[in-house]
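Annex B. Sample input.
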Amino acid sequence: MTTKVAIIASNGGLFDAYKVFNIATASAATEAEVAIFFTFEGLNLIHKQGHQQLPLPAGKEHFAEGFKNANVPSIPELVSMAQELGVKLIACQMTMDVMNLAKEDFVDGIEVGGAVTFLDFAKDANVSLSF
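Annex B, continued. Sample output.
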């Protein structure tokens, strides 16, 4: 039986992105079926421009050098890795409508769907996480 991991990404900072994509890629690398539902600020994590310059929490700017020195992949690299591993990226249609965003504003290869789309995937997930 395949393990299913359902992740909700509702925050849009750099730390949030690392949490979401580290868990997603690690899960997918172990053959799990993974879907991430991006809503509200979480949409920044897959926004074409936004995901390239995600903010660090105030007072945590020194982590930027730490990430670089530790050879941690960038968020755009992690997004690509996730997609290569088959992670399903679902952008929240309602939030996109509220923020006046279109599918073209996001990285290629995403799905657009509502909460029902995500819930259909998550209903029998073995692991459910929210960041």
